[in-house]
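Q: Can someone sanity-check these two? First one:
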Amino acid sequence: MDIGKNQVPYSRKRDHPQFQGMRRSVYTSSSERPTLESQAEIRSSCLPCSLSDTETKQTVQKTYNDDIAKVVEPASKSSLERVQSMTTDRRSNSEEDKSVEELKSTNSGKGKNTSHPKIYLPHSAASFYSGNLLPTDTSVLGMCPGIQRLNQYMKYRKADIKAGVPGKFLQAVIGQEIADVGSIASTIMYAFFLNETQISKQLCTVPIINISRTDFNTHAELKWLLRSCRVEEINLVFVDEVDLSSYKFFGNLKIVLLNGDKLPVKQEGLKDALVDIFNRKQDSTCCTLVAEKFAETMPEILAGQGFSRLLLSGILLDTADLKNPSCTPKDKYITTLLINGAGRYGCDGLYQMLKYKMFDITDLKVRDILLRDFKKWTRVAGKPSSTGSRLTVSNIGMSSIGISVKQLLAREDSAAKEVVLFKESQRLQLLIVVSGYYDFQKIFKRDILVCSSSAELMRNFLHFFNTNCTNLPLKVLDQLDLIDELRAFEIDNKLTSRRSIERVLEEFGGVLRKQ
């Protein structure tokens, strides 16, 4: 049999519906089909070699886009509708329409295929089938029910503060005057715990962060942690945003103190309103004890990854990743209950990430760097006023930084002047900037920058330092061009701790008070 004579040559054809518009627009005859051999001709016909060719290309492209839209959009819509029909118990019809529009608008840039303008490509298959795009920052956890309840609680309590807490007692949960993760996390969580478990409807329990919002904004680790846990920062109430003395004056203030047996100096006049102290003995970290409270009453809330990460971070930093000698067996046990909060980092990785963020000053100005780790010695003067507050006098302050003095003064053109302005804004007579850093040879070094209100005070301090601190020899940094109010030194003894410098300042402060 002569089979070869009647055999039709094979040609591969693309019959997918997406190419229907291309076939109609490029070929005049419906019987013609684009084969592999004709691909080069099709591509070359689209090149704008002349004005007439450009007009032809625009016409073809417009027809092609319209036809692709007719074919692809119903297919995409039907796929999304199938996914959304399986989640009708979680979304309303309006939310479904919104998610479709959001998917299209999000993929209008990067996710859009430039060859097919009307085809919207998701960033991943998982995001397509769930109807939502994955967050670009992988450190941000998914929203859990516990964090949703926490955000709603803080939002309502802040609204109550703005309204003056009408008809209720303000129960302020407040910690020590420290801007660290453990203090802020335990303040927020313990206030939430009291709100969830208290019976009395006469109490408006509010967590009061015992630092200013400006101070909070200089701590990258705090902002990163709250953002990764999905805690809404805008709903926090800081101590400079509420007048606690006025609530005490009208007799509707109750204070719950965390981590200590007495209020900080600034709130000493409010001690009559103190009704409870949590973690007075400080046997374990405060976050450990708060997590223990939740485990005993509502353990299911600790399953939320964001909720558990907030408490876990406080424990890890307060115990130096469970390696501090003061770390207790209870701290380690509670950490195992909260380990889900570590996520993909693991406990060690989460601790290292928080430590890294603590020293991240990339976006900070000189004033913010000085304010990050700032301490000043105050003394109480005079009798209590009608509101219970007493005058505090500050003579000396100390800022600890993780870069050299030379790097600090090089961050801005007016960096030296900013140091002087910071001293004046804190109403100090003497400001000491203590620098601890590693140079290019990975050798640890420590510098100090002294800013005084007068030349006489500068001489007195340097004489006191050289006389009483022979183990802390100072070497003048001559290469820096400083203004009259500033002096910079390098401490030759590399083993000098920050605490030893604090003791010197405390002793010198006592000398100033006697003068």
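And here is the second, same format, sequence then tokens:
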Amino acid sequence: MGRDSLVTFCFQSIPGTLCAKGKLANQLLHDLFANDSRNLRPVLNTDQALNVTLQITLFQIIDMDERNQILTTYLWIRQVWNDAFRHWDKDDYGGIDILHIPSSYLWKPDVILYNNAEDHFASSTETNVVIRHNGQVTWDSPVIARTSCKLDISSFPFDGQRCPLTFGSWTYSGSDINLVHGLEGAGLSDFEENVEWEVLGMLTEKNVVLYGCCSEPYPDITVTLTLQRRPSFYIYNLLLPCIMISSLVPLSFYLPADSDEKVSLGVTILLAFTVFQQMVAEIVPPSETLPLIGKYYIATMLMMTASTALSTLILNIHHCGPEVKPVPHWAKVVFLRHMASILLANEVGRKGAGGTEAADEVPKPTNGHGLREAEIEEEELGQFLSNTSSNCSNARKELRLPLRAAKVDRGQRGCGLRHWERLVRNLEFISDFLSYQRETQRQVSEWRRVARVIDRLYMYLYILMVCGMSVFIMVKAL
């Protein structure tokens, strides 16, 4: 079907006005592009710079790759310029004011994203352009931009970031194209909220830069996004579990030394913190700056290491043998008298600071009458020794009598004397051994009390430090 037949069909089947406008639009398109000049800047004077208005609208934040420091955004880019060769009198074409034509028909500025992080430079989608009768060309195109963004992780996960997006012409200098940014504040009008990042602002500014390769100045439009992280995810998954785990550390000090679980509990908690530290290290980029949550982990792990080492020392003191030296006087005054009362580490039956201790020995079992068996044995042993001594004295007196008066054989008298002397020496040895054992037990008991006081002291210090760090983290979060 030829062009004349198409026009005849149009007039027969469609109202005349609509068909006439379609014909006029076709004629207008033919007249506008009769001379193909899309490869040159559309200016009458080549020495004159072409004004290109650039407006960036942030539609969505797709992803923030903290490890590689790359921000992925979905942008709407509008470029507006005036084409000196593409204008018409709308009265000559039936009042047609605008045309929607493919962007490949026209010259377009080569504005690209300077800080692009893709393997290749992303170009705008080849959408249609809108051209008005006065030669104004408007080109709207969507772009998914991956840009490099230097992150400051010192306050992670309560950090805020500033990520610039720099747009400019790659080949045209400022004498050829003059970039002008669009309306202020219009870049967030259609923004869709992100679950992790909150956009606090979007600042657009124009810069003119002289590069080392060229003598001409190159203008660019830099859009700076001010982002604030939403920390709820990291609080619930990284911070609160660690605070709860660190609250178990005082239990390792509260455990009795005889349970043999103090060191194992500390090592288990230390391993748990190591796992969380590795999780944070996989999220944040490699940097000399340690994030806030990393500082919390390191400080807690240092205290855990110190507590594990101190638990080993306390177990060594608690399980000291009989060869241990007595507790020094200053240690008795500092730990057993003053700090034991302050830290509420006194044993049952002992008075506080300034008072007298009820007993320094290890508690002994008692009989049915409430007397301690060791005291009964000591009394009986004393009575037995006194009786033995009197008997031995009598035996010695009898041995001094004349043989005829005593009527005792000389051999029998010598055997009885040796028997009593050996018995006395054995009883004295037993008495000395019991006294030595009681003294050793008293010293061991004192060292155990010193270990208990040191354990309780570090428990309170650890609780204060953990509470202080937790409050600092929460204040930083607010």
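A (reply): Looked at the second one. The radius of gyration is 48 Å. DSSP finds ten helices and ten strands in the chain.
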